[in-house]
Design goal:
Length: 335
């Protein structure tokens, strides 16, 4: 088994089917063999950074050009970018608060399933001896879910960034990740409201008056029926209306908001507020049942370009789409 100091790195490690660059490295240099050593807390990629003395964070972080000191170390650069972008996605990602399941596919089209949820289908009626047990029908939807490619171009010449410290460059890459995360949230909210193309738009309730009232929150809660309103998805203008409710201005709710920035609603639902949502958006949903996210791989980079220092117009993209699981697991306030 090769040790991390003598592994040959090259572009081909990014093109191994079904494996990421780090997974390929782990196959050559398993972390398990370092469990009792000072390197035990590092993964295979981090050990390669140590091998070439590349520091990507902290006051002593290296300039970008440190990656390109050798042809081997240059092969580490795309993975650095990928990790920084992922970090930005993770920090800004609200999808785990509204998505019930994630499905990864190899392609651009996906046919979701649906479970018929009429009262008759949900009822567990008495079964006489020898009688027929009621069934729940699970069907594929009529229309395919078409995934969208979302991303950003990294428009910077190598000469412009070669002396830039990596910790500062990481901030820019994290922002790219944050942009991607907000765009995906916008796509998810659109599918919740308009449906995924299978005649399943959201049920909209008429507001009680101007702005959001406590009666509106109760209507959303009631509109979900047997589901639990775990999440309120709202645009910033609706967030202001929520914060203006007298019921949210008591001492306990106030202390939580001022201390953590997390709004405690009278109904116990977690609030997700984002500028990615259209003005006037307020959706109550059960995140355990409402939405499925479909992806085709993770963040994609133009690895060859990056390794060859051709950063101009190098694309950072991801492919994703959304399907509704149970249509009645979400309800919106609006006309």
């Amino acid at each position: 088994m090769a040790t991390y100091e003598n592994i040959k790195l090259d572009k081909g490690m990014y093109h191994v089917s079904g494996k990421s660059f780090t997974e390929v490295l782990e196959g050559l240099d398993p972390s398990s063999q370092y469990e009792q050593s000072p390197l035990g807390k590092m993964d295979a990629y981090q050990r390669q950074l140590k091998r070439f003395g590349i520091r990507v964070s902290g006051r002593g972080s290296d300039p970008v050009e440190k990656f390109f000191a050798t042809t081997d170390s240059a092969a580490l650069f795309p993975e650095y970018i990928s990790r920084a972008v992922y970090q930005g996605i993770e920090e800004a990602n609200a999808l785990p608060k509204i998505v019930a399941a994630m499905t990864d596919i190899a392609g651009y089209d996906y046919r979701p399933i649906v479970s018929l949820t009429t009262d008759a289908k949900k009822a567990l009626s008495d079964v006489e001896e020898g009688g027929t047990i009621p069934s729940t029908t699970v069907e594929t939807q009529e229309h395919l879910i078409k995934l969208k490619k979302r991303g950003r171009l990294l428009e910077a010449s190598y000469e412009a960034i070669r002396f830039q410290k990596l910790d500062v460059f990481t901030v820019t890459l994290r922002q790219i990740g944050a942009y991607i995360a907000r765009t995906l949230l916008k796509d998810a909210a659109k599918v919740l409201v308009e449906g995924d193309g299978n005649s399943n738009p959201i049920t909209k309730l008429s507001p009680a008056g101007e702005g959001i009232t406590y009666a509106d929150l109760l209507a959303l809660w009631k509109g979900l029926g047997d589901y639990t309103m775990t999440t309120l998805l709202c645009a910033p203008d609706q967030m202001v209306s929520l914060l203006s409710l007298p019921q949210l201005q008591d001492s306990v709710a106030g202390q939580s908001f001022h201390a953590t920035g997390n709004l405690v609603t009278p109904l116990g639902a977690e609030v997700v507020c984002s500028t990615a949502l259209p003005e006037g958006t307020l959706i109550g949903l059960d995140r355990r049942c409402a939405l499925e996210q479909v992806t085709a791989g993770g963040v994609s980079l133009e690895y060859d370009r990056l390794i060859d220092r051709q950063l101009e117009r190098a694309a950072i993209t991801c492919i994703s789409g959304f399907a509704k699981l149970f249509t009645d697991a979400s309800v919106a306030l609006g006309e």
